[in-house]
Every structure is written in structure tokens, then in C-alpha cells.
């Protein structure tokens, strides 16, 4: 190579664009084989990722990463896979702390209390107890929870939207 990497002029935007279209990288990618900069005590390793920007790290140093490991991110608790595994209302799939509070407000204290309940009647009881009409998706959550506690598979609440709409249409008026 004829010029030191720091002395070489940077590639212009059109040059980088042409290089990307040709399947190669722009001029900065050629710096991979360059030696250490003048006056540098430790050799520098130059990395040219696919997006074309050059990152420099001292030899042996690691690039900074986002903290996304399990010890840095609070993971949601595991939900029960079978009705017998549910110890609290929050263990039931589709039931979080807010919905569990709504259920406790209408007298459902344990997961076993949900078995053989009418989910539509539960929805009406919650609406009456709170004095406001809740989002109909809450009814979907109740359907999913009751079906799960009756031995069904853990199913996302949105799978019951059609059933709920059909029920409300049949019982309207």
C-alpha cells in the first residue's frame, strides 16, 4: 500500500455507493491489512463491517455491546403450562397483575375458582364492580383463562375474538 490509512483521503459518498453496488466495500475496507498508526504503542486492529463504517479496537480489547443478557434484563415469569401447575391467578396464561386484581374484585381468589365459570358473566361482573365498561378484549382473556383451567391448552387471548364477537352479536338487544 502506498499511503498510510490515516493519510489516505476518505471515500466520498458516491464512491462508497458504487463500491456497495459492485458487491465490495468502500476504500475503508482496504485498511484491514494496514499496520499500526505512527506513534501508536499497541497495534490497532481495524474492522470493516458490512455497513461500511470502520471501528477500531486496541488489540485484545473487545467492542462495547448492548447489555441484553438475562442478568441485565428482567425476564417475565414463566406461566403455567397445565391447569394443575397454576398456583396463583398470575400463573395462568393471559392473566397479569391487573386482570388478576379484577378477578379478585369479583370473588375469584384462586385459579381453581375459574374452572366452570361463565367468562361472559365474569366480564359483566367486573364491569358492574368497577362501574365502567372495560375493553371487550378483557372478555377474551377471561375466555382463555377459563378454557385453560378447564383443561384446554394455553392459547393466546386473541384466538377467542371471533367467539366473543359471535356471542355478543347473538345476545345483543
UniProtKB/TrEMBL annotation:
<feature type="compositionally biased region" description="Basic residues">
    <location>
        <begin position="14"/>
        <end position="24"/>
    </location>
</feature>
<feature type="compositionally biased region" description="Basic and acidic residues">
    <location>
        <begin position="1"/>
        <end position="10"/>
    </location>
</feature>
<dbReference type="Pfam" id="PF11731">
    <property type="entry name" value="Cdd1"/>
</dbReference>
<protein>
    <submittedName>
        <fullName>Helix-hairpin-helix domain-containing protein</fullName>
    </submittedName>
</protein>
<dbReference type="InterPro" id="IPR021725">
    <property type="entry name" value="Cdd1"/>
</dbReference>
<feature type="region of interest" description="Disordered">
    <location>
        <begin position="1"/>
        <end position="44"/>
    </location>
</feature>
